[in-house]
Amino acid sequence: LDVNFAPYINFKGEAKGVVVVLHDFTEIRRLEKMRSDFVANVSHELRTPITSIKGFTETLLDGAMQDEETCRNFLQIIYDESERLYRMIRDILDLSKIEQKRLTLQLTEVDLQDLMASTVALLQEQAQRKQISIQLPDPHPRVTLTTDKDCLQQIILNLVTNAVVYTPEGGAISLSLRQERGQVQFQVADTGIGIPEADLPRIFERFYRVDRARSRDSGGTGLGLAIVKHLVENLHGHITVQSAEGEGTTFTVTLPLQW
Ligand code: ADP
């Protein structure tokens, strides 16, 4: 809190009181802290893949290159880590663009079932490798909404990608939707590992991961859900999650049909 005093003097030059000005800096400080925490987190997250790329490159240069198999293994790790670094930078930039609402929304009429089908098609191969089935909602009756198609596709893509990553072999993912009172509500449900109750309130935070190692192995950046939440809010909607450990997780997105 910042406090300023000034005497209040009337036109005759008599002191009549004091003027007190109070400035509340709590909000500004909070935002500053959030920003510096974010920078600290980003630096830490970026350092991990870079350290590993540096380490493996040094070992190769120090002589490990002589052995072809070691060489191949190390190069694969270096490649994977560079990919992760690339994804992380892409996600960080996306997130800051979305946050600053620099993303200019392009509103068009979007057929939700069509968009779900074309988005799921992008992940079909990855799902098949784990023998995970993906069920799409009934295409009839058609549900259309006026929204930004790219944002909505990114939301569906991130949610279904997570469902594939966090569901063991042979599991099932199901997409469903229902339209009611000027809104559409859609769900992405999986039969995966679930999220412990204690972690649920935090999973939409940037870089928050229930199991750091598992997320890293799957190429995760810890930013997918933060991006989803911001995108949903930019589309004037909201998102909720329900989960039971060992049973599965369901994300529910509610969007206005028109705005
Ligand atoms: P990540 O890149 O780690 O997947 P996200 O922001 O997409 O980052 O998700 C944050 C965390 O939430 C994940 O690390 C994971 O622990 C948990 N999570 C997200 N989706 C699911 C899901 N469908 N099932 C189980 N856990 C999930």
From TrEMBL:
Subcellular location field: Cell membrane; Membrane raft
Major subcellular location class: membrane
Alphabetical keyword list: ATP-binding, Cell membrane, Kinase, Membrane, Nucleotide-binding, Phosphoprotein, Transferase, Transmembrane, Transmembrane helix, Two-component regulatory system
GO MF annotation list: ATP binding; phosphoprotein phosphatase activity; phosphorelay sensor kinase activity
Histidine kinase domain residues: 41-259
GO BP terms: cellular response to phosphate starvation; regulation of DNA-templated transcription
Gene Ontology CC terms, in alphabetical order: membrane raft; plasma membrane
Protein name: histidine kinase
Shown chain mapped onto the complete sequence: 330 to 588 of 588
